[in-house]
Amino acid sequence: MNHYSQSQIINAARYPKNHKDEMETEIVCGCYSCTSIFFPNEIKEYQRAKDHRSVAVCPFCNSPTVIGSRSGYPIRKDFLEEMKQYWSKEDYLNSLKDNI
Ligand SMILES: [Zn+2]
Fold first, then answer.
1. I want to staple 60 with a disulfide (CB 3.0 to 4.6 A). Which of 14, 23, 36, 75 is the partner?
2. The domain containing residue 72 runs over which residues?
3. pLDDT of 29 above 70
4. Distance 37 CA to ligand 1 centre (A)
């Protein structure tokens, strides 16, 4: 654990959430709320963000906290686990909801 840099953890969550079309071409996706790893065709729901982008919703925990492999970040259980620990702060989650 903790072999990823903090900036990686922070920036991965700030990575612009993909458009639906882009997300469907991802090889694999991961959720940093529940650390599930899944294929893009398992995503059943997209939320419309304020800037009109479609943000993928995790099929397992229904959180808009999905990142795709094309972001360049490692879609690995241990990476998602570290993101989850860092981003599970309540104020962050609230700010995230405000943006949806
Ligand atoms: Zn999830």
1. 36
2. 6-95
3. yes
4. 8
From CA 19, how far away is CA 43, in angstroms rounded? 13
CA 98 to each of CA 17, 25, 37, 69, 91: distance values in angstroms, whole numbers, following the listed order:
15, 27, 25, 25, 11
In a domain, 87, yes or no: yes
Q: How far is the CA of 10 from the centre of ligand 1 (A)?
A: 17
**Residue 45, domain member (yes or no):** yes
Q: What is the number of domains present in the chain?
A: 1
Q: Give the closest residue to 75 by CA, choosing from 34, 35, 21.
A: 35
For 54, the enclosing helix (H) or strand (E) is strand 54-57
Report the separation in Å between the CA atom of 73 and the middle of ligand 1, taken as the mean of its atom positions.
17
Is 25 domain-assigned?
yes
d(CA 71, CA 32): 14
pLDDT in tens, 41-99: 999 999 887 777 788 999 999 998 999 988 889 999 999 999 998 877 666 666 666 65
Ligand 1 centroid, distance to 58 Cα (angstroms)? 5
